[in-house]
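Before going further, it is useful to explain how the protein records used in this thesis are read. An example of such a record is reproduced below.

***
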Amino acid sequence: NNSQIEGLVADFLEYMQVERGASPLTLRDYRHYLSRFVAWFSGQGRKRIEELTLEQVRKYRAYLASIGLGPDDKGRPLKRITQNYHTIALRAFLKWLIKNDYKVLAPDKIELPKAESRSLKFLEPEQLERLLSQPIVSTPVGLRDKAILEMLFSTGLRVSELVKLNRDTVNLDKREFGVIGKGGKARVVFLSDRAVE
């Protein structure tokens, strides 16, 4: 019966939502990562989170690295960055447990491996122009798409932020508006003349 750990994970997710104001996407990801850990841990015959050792964390990470290598798993291993996200979620969970007086493995003993470095790719000016000229502006849908592309390009908004925008909050005269981003942080973004038009 691994209900002890499952109950604690549920409490932790509630804490993340209520106390930390985590977004629904973050909660969904943490639930996914931690339920994978719980399934693996209980599969090792472990019932209580206090039984977790550094050696088991090493085995869990080896398991994460091997996911997808079997014939039934499309043959695609988990990316290193995704493996790291599982470990980050586990560390956050352990940190919360310690805060709540559980005698568990210290999260700072679990080191994160370096993720493979990702090089940034930039669009050349002509590629950008080609992208921005894709929408057919003689139709309402094309006009909308053009406005979306110009706004994303000139403000650097995340798509999730753009989707939540309310037209009333966008000041076209001043060419600027405030946006609440990740973690509830507010910032001001600026519109180009083309985006305003």
Q: What stands out?
A: The two ends are 62 Å apart (CA to CA). Strands lie at 176-180, 186-190.
